[in-house]
Amino acid sequence: MSHNTFGHLFRVTTWGESHGPALGCVIDGCPPGLPLTESDIQPWLDRRKPGGSRFVTQRREADAVRILSGVFEDAAITARFGGPVTTGTPISLLIENTDQRSKDYGEIARQFRPGHADFTYQAKYGVRDYRGGGRSSARETAARVAAGAVARKVLGEGVAIRAAVVQIGPHRIDPARFDWAEVDANPLFAPDPEIVPVWEAHLDERRKRGSSAGAVVQVEAMGVPAGWGAPVYGKLDAELAAALMSINAVKGVEIGAGFAAAAMDGADASDEMRAGAAGPRFLSNHAGGVLGGISTGQPIVARIALKPTSSIATPRRSLDEDGAEIDVRTLGRHDPCVGIRAAPVAEAMVACVLADAFLRHRAQVG
């Protein structure tokens, strides 16, 4: 299987399956001399890991990360940096799987679950790991979050990346009540506390029906200076869109105003400028912080739309590997809304793209 690596100078290769012994990633291109320990990575994984509430899968995984390579510490380094630092060599990260229930999937070993990658993997490779979807499982995103933690180290404290769920099913937050401080105060990553009971009721109702819900996640990056990215084929927004689109269940990506820009007047859509104390001051940000594929210095804003979880208890019409028509019910433990735990994943993908953009910018212009 190819195409498990993304990035140019900051390159990430993820590996592992949902029900294998472990999963992880190899990060190549991380600069040397950056302080890095497992405790720098673990808090980001804890935000994504399963079992945190009744609104996510009840699979119990500690998602404890181990650094296997790419960092070093001795007395001189400890005196200078206070702990291990990156060496510039590949960083290998390991996350063990400890709560697999492969028996839950025995019934569907030869069945194609609607909405899943079962049929397409079988059509392409002629073989597939049906246990939890194998490589196509959202479990793979744990490795991305770990890589994102290293990317944040590359970016430094001047760049802040944050994400929030802004819609579940048909229920959107009220933009007037958007408060980033609320995101970590509830299990749904909601920036509007008043929407939380509405979403909880919606998810409970969907689960009782044996179904699921979709979501929209908004992610922002603050502190990105003007100039990152490249024209034409290296556009920053194009690479962000590709990275975000690679997240499981994502079916749409918007940058800035996104599709709403099509309904705008040209005078309203343009982000006018005035002189500011530290350079140009933009009067709006419909472009989402990117013009011509290059960052403007404004916040980079993107939204992703995630389809409802395909693993549901409601019988759905499908086929088996012999072409026979069947009804499929997916047992096991699944997220009623995959969009909830997608918020930390979106942050991680943006962090990796921006770390790569920073290193490429530095290489080209100094």
Strand content: 15-25%
The N- to C-terminal Cα distance equals 37 Å
Over all CA atoms, what is the radius of gyration?
21 Å
Biggest sheet: strand arrangement? 1-2-3-7-4
Overall shape: globular
How would you name the oligomeric state of the polypeptide chains in this document?
Answer: single chain
Name the structural class: alpha+beta
Q: Return the string of H and E elements.
A: EEEHEEHEEHHEEHEHEHEEEEEEEH
> Low-confidence runs (pLDDT<50, min 5 residues)?
none
Q: Average pLDDT value?
A: 93
In DSSP terms (H or I, runs of 4 or more residues), the helix count works out at 8
What is the number of strand segments? 18
State the helical fraction: 25-40%
Main beta sheet: 5 strands, antiparallel
Describe this entry's structure for a reader.
This protein is of the alpha+beta class. Helix content is 25%, strand content 22%. The chain has 8 helices and 18 strands. The protein has a 5-stranded antiparallel β-sheet, covered by helices on one side. Strands 9-8-10-16-11 form a 5-stranded antiparallel β-sheet. It has a two-stranded antiparallel sheet with strand order 5-6. Strand 2 and strand 3 form a beta hairpin.
